[in-house]
Every structure is written in C-alpha cells, then in structure tokens.
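Quick question, first post here. What does this chain look like in 3D?
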Amino acid sequence: MLAVYVDDMIITGNDEGEIALLKKRLSKEFEVKDLGQLKYFLGIEIAHGVEGIVLSQRKYMLDLLTETCMLGCKPLVAPIDQKSKLSAEAGEPVDKERYQRLVGRLIYLSHTRPDISFAVSVVSRYMHDPREGHMDAVYQILRYLKSAPGKGVIFRKNGHLSIEGYCDSDWASCADDRKSTSGYCIFVGGNLVSWKSKKQSVVARSTAEAEYRAMALGVAEMIWLRALLVELKMDQEAQMKLWCDNKSAISIANNPVQHDRTKHVEIDRFFIKEKLNNGLLKLGYVTTREQVVDCLTKGLSSLELSRLCDKMGLVDIFRS
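> Answer (accepted):
Ran it through. Tokens below.
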C-alpha cells in the first residue's frame, strides 16, 4: 500500500521483497529519499514500542502553544466546562482571521486527540462571527493541551480485526438552534481508529430521534471502514457490533413495523434495518457509565474525562 500526500510518501505491506522492489522502481523515475522506519508524517509523530504504535502531535502542539504565547500558561484539566453554554451572542467581536487560524490548527490536532473533539466542534460553529466568549473557549482548549502535550492514540496487536463502535447524542444541546450533537467512536481490532463529534443538521424532537441519527452516522462509518479493510485484503467475516445507551433507539431499529412517530427518521431507519437484516450489524445496549462517546457529546469532569480517555486508548509516552 502506497500513501502519497504532495511530496511525502508512506509505503507499507507484509512483503518486504515487494516493498524493496517498489522503492527501487520509484527511485528510477523520481528523485526519492528513503527515511527508514516511519517516525514523522505531516505533523504526526509515530513512536514504535513493545506495547504497540503511538500516534501523537507533540511538536505540532508545542509550536502552537509557543505561537500563541501559551507555553507558560497554567494548565487546565478539561477542554470545556461541564456547564458551558456558548451562544452566538458571547461578547464583542474578535479578530476573525486569528480565530479561524487557531480553530483550524485545533481541528488538525483532533486527528490524534479525540478528547478535544467536542470542544473543537463547539468553537467551530462560530467561525463566521467569533466573539470574546468563543475566543476564551479556544484558549481553554489550549490550556488543557498544555497539561499533556504528548498524549496520543495507541495501537496494540490484539489478535483480531473485528469492528466495534459506540454512538451517542446529547439532545438539544446547542443554545442557538436547539440542534443535538452526535458522536461516535469506531474500534478496529480493539483500537480506536475513527471518531467524530458533530452538530446534527436538523432539530430532533426527542432523545430517541437524536440518538437514532447518531446511530445512523456511526453505522455509515463502520460500513466504510469494513469496505476499506476488505480492499486491503483483510478478512471481515465477523459481524460488526454497535453499542448504544438508548433502549428506545435500539427498539426502533429492531422493530419491523413502521410507526408515524418514526417516519421523520424513515431513511435512517431503513438504512440501519437493511444492515441488521443482512447480518452485517448487531446492536447492543451499554450503560451510560460505560458509554465511551460521552466525551464527544458533552463537557465532562476531569475524572470522567480521564476514565474515558483510558478506555479510548489515549496514552502519554512522554510523561514520567
């Protein structure tokens, strides 16, 4: 497999001879430099160890803190307050270009830091008209990052490649338009590979509807990942499993009868139902305490956030 981004390239595979041949043929056509084992790619640092592979963005993060003069700031234990209710009217306007640049840098940091995804999703909603309160929320994220700049996602060899996901939603959480926030985490082989925190495009009239829309979003991502693994010649015979903490949403998915109460989520309902009937997917109930996605839909206490970060596989190899 060959991954190319402009003039940066990654080659990986299970045939050393074929990899060596590919390098030789590329060097005949282009001027290339072999940097050996992958250690750094597009601002992402890759560390190899006996426990597995860790992806982090420590240097990128420290450069951002230096650029914003936040390297010596007092760190915080959470990226967003539990009771935070940001709205469009949050003080006087601030420098729009600076705000957009900072949020853009934080969005890229979310590639290895799922713990800031919800906070970054919230501040991203006000890119068109940033205010003082929004900028304060951005600086809170930076102060949280200062507490553990080396934190990243670990990938361990667990002996399987089964796909498992968690989905959740926080109902009517946006103070501006009362739209809900969807979140999902997808694990492949017991390792977190995909996550998202996103405001829903329409207003949900119940928690079950909001959860069902989040479920459809998670299922779509799982199907895409399964297709990718099949393309990589990796066996995907095992049934995918999606965990949800809302029994009503699970009941709607498993109910063969269409009701008037569910016709506004009809497309999502039939989409999930098709995957259940095909045997590709199985839905399971998980308690709210064991719901990994909570940190992608709402602000949490430092203890809860730390517990969920451990469950998602976030580690800090730079911490003593």
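The chain has three domains: 2-36, 56-152, 160-312.
Residues 56-152 form one domain.
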